[in-house]
Amino acid sequence: YACYSSHATRLSPPCDGEDEYANMDWDNLGFGMTPTDYMYMVKCSKDGSFETGQLTSYGNLELSPSAGVLNYGQGLYEGTKAYRKEDGRLLLFRPDQNAIRMKMGADRMCMPCPSIDQFVDAVKQIAVANKRWVPPPGKGTLYIRPLLIGSGPILGLAPAPEYTFLVYASPVGNYFKEGLAPLNLYIEEEFHRASRGGAGGVKSITNYAPVLKAIARAKSRGFSDVLYLDSVNKKYIEEVSSCNIFLVKGNVISTPAANGTILQGVTRRSIIEIARDNGYQVEERAIQVDELKVADEVFCTGTAVGVAPVGNITYQGTRVEYKMRNGSVAEKLYAILEGIKTGVIEDKKGWITEI
Ligand code: COI
After folding, report:
1. Are 209 and 337 in contact (CB under 8 A)?
2. Ligand 1 atom nearest to 304, measured from its CA
3. How far apart, in whole angstroms, are the C-alpha atoms of residue 274 and residue 255?
4. DSSP character for 236?
5. pLDDT digit string, tens, across residues 76-135
6. In the predicted model, what is the mean pLDDT of the chain?
7. Ligand 1: residue whose CA is nearest its atom 9
8. From the CA of 143, how far away is ligand 1's center (Å)?
9. Are 151 and 43 in contact (CB under 8 A)?
10. Which ipTM was obtained for this model?
C-alpha cells in the first residue's frame, strides 16, 4: 500500500517518510469532518457481489434522486479508527468486527455486502492512502467511516437495484465537547431509539436521524447526550445516542444485553472482555432505570466516544451524581484498551492489525 496515483487530489501522494503530516492544527481536533485525500469505492448489482474497489480522490457522489438510500434509508455505516504509533506505523483495532457487523446489518437491510477480507482491505487502504491525516500519537485518530448504501434508483418500496460500498476518513479528537470530562446524561421518556423487531441492533443509518430531536432538546438544556429507555416498559435502560452504557457496583459491571435493540459495539465487546480478564464479573442483562441510583460508577463506550465517564444522570427531574475518583473502573479499563490500541500494551488477543 505504499503509493497511489490514480485520480488523486494530490499529484503525488505521500510515500513513507515523505510529507509526513497534513497541514492541520493537531492540538485542537474535535469530532468534525476534515476532508482527506482519498476515498474507496465499489459498486455492485442487487444479485451481484462486490469486486475489488478503487481509491479515488475524496469528493461528492453522483446519485439518482430515486436512490434507495435517499428515499427509503437503505444504508448502513460503520466506524473504526487508525492510530499512529510512536514509530510511525499505523494500527487498526479489530476492523474484522466492523466487517462482521456490517454483514449482519446487510442481511437485515436486504443488501449485498463486501466480504470480511474486502472490508478489512478497504479500511487498510484508506488508512495508508490518507496516512498524512492520521494525527500524531496522543493527538487523536483517523476515524474511518465505511458506508454501504442502496445507490440504485427505485420508486416502489423494494431493495435498490445497485449498491455502493465506500470508505472515507477524517482526523478526529474527542467526540464530546466536554473532552474527557464526565458526561451529563438526560433520560428520555418520550422518544425511543429502537423497538423490538426494529433495526436498533444493527448500524442502520435509520437509527440515527430519529434521535436528533431528543439530542437537540437535551443539549439545549445543557446535557451532553440522551440515554434511552426500552419502548415497551419504559423501565429498562438501553443505550445513549452515540454509545453503549455500563454500570459499576462493587466488582460487578453490568450493561444492557444486546437483544436486538442494543447496538453491538466493538468497544462494548472489547471492554467486557478486558473487564473479565481483570477480575470483574460482567453481566449482560436487562437493567432497570432505578439501578442507576445505586451504581458506584457509570460509563459509556463507543468507537467515537472511547470510554467516557458519566458525571450525572437526570431522570424525571431528579439528578443522580457519580463521584469522580482517581482509579475509577472506567479509567482503568480505558487505559488498558487505549494501551492495546496504541501499541503501548502488548496485544495478546490478536485485536491489532499493524500496517
Ligand atoms: C461510532 O462510535 O463510531 C459511531 O458510529 C457513533 C457515531 C454517532 C459517531
Report:
1. no
2. 2
3. 14
4. B
5. 999 999 999 989 999 999 999 999 999 999 999 999 999 999 999 999 999 999 999 999
6. 93
7. 304
8. 10
9. yes
10. 0.97
**Which cell goes with 46?**
442487487
Bigger pLDDT: 17 or 319? 319
The reply to whether 103 belongs to the active site is no
**Amino acid identity, position 328:** S
Alpha-helix runs per DSSP H in the chain: 68-72, 95-108, 116-129, 212-220, 266-277, 329-341
> What atom of ligand 1 comes closest to residue 305's alpha carbon?
2
Residue with CA at minimum distance from ligand 1 atom 8:
242
How remote is the CA of residue 247 from the centroid of ligand 1, in Å? 20
**pLDDT tier at 323 (50, 70, 90 boundaries)?**
confident
Pull the grid cell for residue 167.
Answer: 470508505
Q: Specify the residue for cell string 510511525.
A: 88
Q: Which residues line ligand 1 (CB under 6 A)?
A: 79, 242, 302-305
Test site for ligand 1: of 141, 172, 242, most ligand atoms within 8 A of the Cβ:
242
Which of 228, 183, 184, 234 minimizes the C-alpha distance to 210? 228
Which amino acid, 129? A
Look at residue 177 in the predicted model and tell me its pLDDT: 80
The one catalytic residue among 203, 219, 293, 341: 203
- Supply the DSSP symbol for 228: E
The total of other beta-carbon atoms located within 10 Å of residue 350's CB is: 8
The pTM score is 0.93
Pocket mutation for ligand 1, best pick of 167, 264, 303 (most atoms within 8 Å of C-beta): 303
Distance 18 CA to ligand 1 centre (A): 31
Q: Specify which residues 82 forms β-bridges with.
A: 92, 142
Q: What pLDDT does 326 receive?
A: 80
Give yes or no for a contact between 304 and 31, defined as CB atoms under 8 angstroms apart: yes
Q: Do the Cβ atoms of 146 and 94 come closer than 8 Å?
A: no
